[in-house]
Amino acid sequence: MGRALVTGNHAAAWTLARAGEANRIARGCAGGAYPITPQTEIIEHLRNFAFTKGRIVPVESEHSAMGVCIGASLAGARAFTASSANGLSYMTENVFAAGYYRLPIIMVAVNRALGPPWNIWVDQGDSLALRDAAWMQFYTESHQDLIDTILLAFRVAEDPRILLPAMIATDGFISSHTTMVADLPDQEQIDAFLPPLNVPHRLRFDHPATIGGLTWPRETEHLRHAIQRAMELVPTVYAEAQDEFERVFRRRPHGAMEPYHTDDAEIVLVACNTMARTARRVVDLRRAQGQRVGMVQAKMFRPFAGQALRNAIGPAKRIAVLDRNHSPGAGGVFWQEAVAALRSRPDVLVQDYIVGLCGGDVTPDVLERIVDDLSARADAVEPIWQEVTA
Predict the structure, then answer these.
(1) Secondary structure (3-state) at 22
(2) How far does CA 346 lie from the centroid of its chain?
(3) How do residues 124-143 score in pLDDT, each as one tens digit?
(4) What are the residue ranges of helices labelled H in 101-142?
(5) Global pTM exceeds 0.85
(6) Residue 147 belongs to what H/E stretch?
(7) Rounded to whole angstroms, how far apart are CA atoms 207 and 194?
(8) Which domains does the chain have, with CATH numbers?
């Protein structure tokens, strides 16, 4: 199709639909659909798509929507859905089941604050509440990044070395309902990038089997260890998918931890989703003033790309982690992961800044104050809740 002006939801639906269509020569595609703001437009677009071999099934709840995906994937179909906030919470049981079944389901999570009190604006607490499920998680900063990451997620999830579901997060309203020019790939390109799906443990009439039956402790431990080994391979398989993506689409998508002006940086901001775009602007402003500030777009959260983060920060000794989420009693979730990843670097000060919760604006001024605060710090302290002024 080429370049078009689209909303984030339209971009997500376009990509999911055509990824599903790419499996038409195999066992087709299917997905469960249940509306919740701000992702509803995604499933509306999917419902209107004329699949050659596939269907979107409207159901009575998010739990059932993931149940449809599980059934479709166990039948060997390419499966996908979308949800947000309390919808993600409601499908939690089946989210965990999909991961433990080793099914390469793709879900777009349009981040929204969990309620009560009811709040429809962006907050990453919904997707990060599922961080211990056996799912890959990716966070995207723009419509183009969202499109590219959905395609990469299908490629990685369906790789026989991985066979794990993937969640692709994007900011509610800030991304989902705003328009942006993006390159919508042609069906022929997507066909070339996504080979026909083969779920090796799919249900077969000629070889009946029971899925999800009772196992003994040692057997279950073995299965969990196999998931861990698959997760450890994800960065390698993702890098291979980047190479193939570049070959097919003639541009290179963002890496797991994408550095920006970090080669000589003294201070680095670590940010994800639309905050990364704002952080990039602040870096440019500070660089114009002669200050050695850089940033890292944290794209791959599960598995957490620790080695990539260590490489991406370069020589910087002060790191600000921007968290649009909050784990009560602990602090920001990305910060916790970053501290663990950088434990071999005791010379690095890693400070958590909790910003933009529940839809609060994260403006350049907010990030400018964070850079100033971090520059003056001798030691890291407990997570700082950054006040947003009008």
Answers:
(1) coil
(2) 29
(3) 999 999 999 999 999 999 99
(4) 125-128
(5) yes
(6) helix 143-157
(7) 27
(8) 2-249 (3.40.50.970), 257-385 (3.40.50.920)
